[in-house]
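Query structure, 256 tokens:
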């Protein structure tokens, strides 16, 4: 009887340690090498979309990590006049504010030949994101979806875009709208204790329309947060919803 109990116990342990959710890893020695490789990969996606459909739609994250990548992407040779760029999210600040993702894109990606690309801002000149939700949602739906490529960053708290771990605390339905893999609104107006300002963000229903999904993270701490979320089926972090719900295997671009 003892042997049987041990075998059962061993089987139970096997069941409790599921495989981590899939990621296609690209590891680089430093940020600059990563930025160049990611820019080349995304440029190839855009060229392919233009070749197939005559235009390409790209969503990119803001924050500090992507600056070098966005500058490298700007140098890629492609038919930029047929590219539409939309921020994955934006802070509800003036477009010339230092924390504006729209400003980041204009300073880095929309330079040189890439300045011919069309930018679809998520931020509008209204006092709150909630008051601009319908026009932004309409434009994103009609002009930006389906996306051809998305580059997500991640915070050390496991947020992606402006989908923070406390999603739903301010408005009950937001967690469902933001993190369901499909069938929900593509855009959400967000307030979070983790963000200094209100946000407008794409939801996973919009992000997951892209056949090319990149996760650009740098540093050991973020890598640890990612790996833990990938392994733990009980994780409620937004990055877990990305890994669990993505219709394509996300491509991780990581450097220490
Ligand atoms: O507007 C934003 O802040 C981004 O879209 C956000 O999702 C970002 O990717 C993470 O916060 C990581 O930001 P860092 O690159 O600055 O760490």
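Result returned for the query:
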């Amino acid at each position: 009887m003892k042997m049987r109990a041990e075998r059962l116990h061993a089987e139970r342990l096997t069941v409790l340690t599921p495989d981590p959710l899939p990621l296609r890893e690209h590891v680089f020695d430093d940020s600059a090498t990563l930025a160049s490789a990611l820019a080349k990969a995304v440029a190839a996606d855009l060229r392919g979309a233009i070749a197939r459909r005559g235009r390409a739609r790209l969503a990119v994250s803001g924050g500090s990590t992507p600056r070098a990548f966005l500058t490298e992407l700007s140098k890629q040779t492609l038919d930029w006049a047929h590219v539409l760029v939309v921020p994955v999210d934006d802070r509800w600040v003036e477009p010339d504010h230092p924390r504006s993702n729209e400003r980041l894109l204009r300073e880095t990606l929309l330079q040189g030949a890439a300045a011919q690309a069309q930018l679809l801002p998520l931020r509008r000149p209204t006092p709150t994101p909630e008051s601009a939700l319908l026009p932004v949602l309409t434009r994103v739906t009609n002009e930006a979806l389906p996306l051809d490529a998305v580059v997500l960053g991640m915070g050390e708290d496991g947020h992606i875009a402006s989908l923070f771990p406390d999603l739903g605390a301010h408005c009950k339905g937001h967690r469902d709208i933001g993190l369901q893999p499909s069938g929900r609104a593509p855009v959400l107006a967000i307030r979070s204790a983790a963000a200094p300002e209100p946000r407008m963000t794409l939801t996973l229903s919009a992000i997951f329309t892209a056949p090319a999904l990149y996760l650009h993270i740098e540093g050991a701490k973020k890598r640890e947060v990612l790996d833990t979320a990938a392994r733990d089926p009980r994780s409620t972090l937004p990055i877990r919803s990305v890994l669990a719900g993505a219709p394509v295997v996300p491509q991780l671009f990581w450097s220490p």
